[in-house]
Amino acid sequence: MVLRGTKRFKTASILLILLILLIIPFESMEAEGPLRIAITPVLPEGHLEPNREMINYIGDRIERSAELVQRRSYQEINDLLQKGEVDVAFVGGVTYILGRDKSAMELLVAPVVFDESTNYFSYLVVRKDSPIRSLLDLKGKRFAFTDPLSTSGKLLPAYLLARINETPETFFKKYIYTYSHSSSIEAVSVGLVDGASVDSYIWDFLSSKDPESVSRLKIIERHELIGTTPVVVRNDIEPGLKERLRRVFLDMERDQRGREILNKMGIKRFVDVKDSIYNATREMFKFVERRTDPGRKKKR
Amino acid sequence: MIRLILKPFQDWGLAKRISAGVGLLLFILPLLLGLFVIEQDRKVLDEELKKRGIGLAERVSLPAVDHILHDDIWELYKLIRDITKISAATENIALYAMVLDNSGKILVHSDPLSVKLGEPIKDSVSVGGSPNPDSLLSKGILIREIRLKEESLYEISSLILRGDERLGITRIGITKRYMEEQRRRLRRDLFIASFILGASGAIVGFLIARQMIRPLNQLTRSVAALGDEQFDKDIKDIMAPVRRRDEVGLLADSFNMMIQRLKKSRKELKESEERHRSLWEHVEDSMIRVTLEKKIIAVNRRVEEVIGYPREEIAGSDISIMIPDKYCDLFDEVFQRTLKKGEKAPTIEIEVLTRDKGLISMELDMRGVTIRDEVESIQIHFRDISKRKEIEQELINAARFVTIGELTTDLTHEINNPIGIISGFAQQILAKMDEGNPSYKFVRIISEEAKRCKNVMKDLLAFSQPSSFQYSLVNPEDLINESLEFVLLLLHQKELISVKKEIQDNLPRLYLDIPRMKGVFLNIYMNAVDAMPQGGDLITQASLDGSYIKIAVSDTGKGIPEDYLDKVFTPYLTTKEGGSGIGLSISKRIVEAHNGRIEIENRLEGGARCLIWLPSHEGAIK
To answer: Is the complex ipTM more than 0.85?
Structure first.
């Protein structure tokens, strides 16, 4: 009797445990899956915390878990959007115009970082002790681009060179890609390259958050660019979600938490923008393409 | 050498020395051991460092393949930047890192400004530049030791390989600074640890040693407190109060036993010293002990009495203050002889200068006081002989006086007779001779001169006649004793002569001229002593013989030759060399003047005997 009672209890226990083990995974799964947001490390290493806070904020606001997807280059993010593997992405101007051409993404919002417009600058920076005073002085020197698809970090200097019938290959002794503006700043600082073209937004961000990192550098040329780096969504995103996301971004400055995150990121607010503000970028891109050797092998 | 080093520590107390020794040992031993281990460990550390360097190089080389293929200079830079940063976060062993391409050109460098990027590096290990870099890098790794800005470091070169294809070289400069710093730190920690160990060892050693030595100190205090008065206390009060069962306890026991023995022998010593002091103080001689440099150490009471210096005053003075100049040489000579031989020098007679500048005749003996065969001091005996000298002089004067008187009487008689005859016959011739005779005048002159001569002789006799006898009563025994005393004073070797007396009790007194009779006895005694140059018995017997007192003086000498026996009282006849031969004849006359009788005979048992009969007082009156 006693023996049988114990056996029954054991069996019941095992069944219970199995049941619990089966239920747990299902419980943690969501019906829709998390919202995936892709970001290139625009912000320098060591300052990525606001990114995470922003993702969490967005997730909380749309009442879905949000997942941060980080890639090193814009190209990778472009690919992810095209494959539908991310829902939202922070991209560059060139990325956007190329992605839109392929119908891979739609414009959502753009940040205001300078004055009250969606304009910004591309800074040409060199070391303070350098004799280089203009882009032309950089001939035969080493230069750092950020991303091949970066507007301020690649397109603008390439455009300037194209205007004097030069390409990076002919003009520079050596050029490299750092895939981040802060890396470009570091590359110039340590002497890996002699100059770089960087986003004014990052420069200003570093100047205020980490003055040491730009202390050895000076800006020798400033070039204004129209259309800050936009936030895009996957082309086939559900319109309701897109609208909800747009509102979350636009309303960020209206609540305390959102303002704090914007503040940390050096962004004043997000605004609605029209696709046409990126026309200037399109012009530059085409100009460079025309002048560049069609047979040039594209970097990633 | 060791003694020289240890010398300053010899004055230290035992506890301090033990403490220092233990401390030093506990300091030096672990230090040496530790240093040895650290030194042994150096190679291991060195290998460890190289391994870590290789590890770092490989951490660059493996991912570098991809970056080189993609010409991703930034990632390549980040790789080596991170390597140097990683090591900076820990121990910063990588001073620099670089990646070279196959042509030896620098692709990236951890400090790009310090080199020319894209230019070939100018040293022998760069690919293509060295004699045979492939062999050096046969295992994909090359380690060489280089110096960079006064710093010694290992440069690790590691091939960047993609399969068998060589893409470049990673080179990392690994400093030994941290390894050496680590060793320095180790050595410093070791030193501190050893020092703490040594110091605690010293303290503990000191405490233990002091604990152990405390009874010794107690013992020392007990010994130090052992003054004269301590020894008079009860033995229990002076014994060291140490109650232990260890070696120190045994020592204390032995010490206490020693105290007991010491106390006993001290007591004996004290008694012996007292006896000695009593002897020293009460001996009739003045005694002075001097150092070998003639400084006075001690004097006895007689010195104070006779020479007049209180002992406090004379102590430390030179003995020569009491030696007159004329005796200095003699004194020094004897002193030196005593000093050299340490034995008794011959007795000398000198005069001694007293404190009040008087002179005393003294006989002086010196003897070295030897302690363990070394002459330690000289003891000088001064014997006051001024009294003896006085008596001697007196006797000589008396004898001379008696002798001259008797001699003159003798001579006068001898001369009177022939002159009487001359005078008588001259008278007879004058009576028969005519006045006109030419010879008459001469004979008369003879007669007158003879008469004058007789008168002169008479006057001389009258002058030289010994003073009239002064009679007084004397106990025969006193007479004998006083005479003997003179004789003994005059004797130089009295120890050879054994003086014996057999004097009958209650002898009647004598009535006589004491000085003259003393002279007689002196004469007889001296004869007896002279007869015994090798020593012998001088026997004086006195007894009543009728109304006479018979005094016999015997010697144990060789006796008197038979044919001289009947001539002994004849003047000018002597067997003694240097004797006048009149002593006994004068003695005979003096004895006979006292109605006495004197005889000399040989004794049957050997030697001579002189017999004198003197009438007792009672007899003399009769």
So the answer is: no
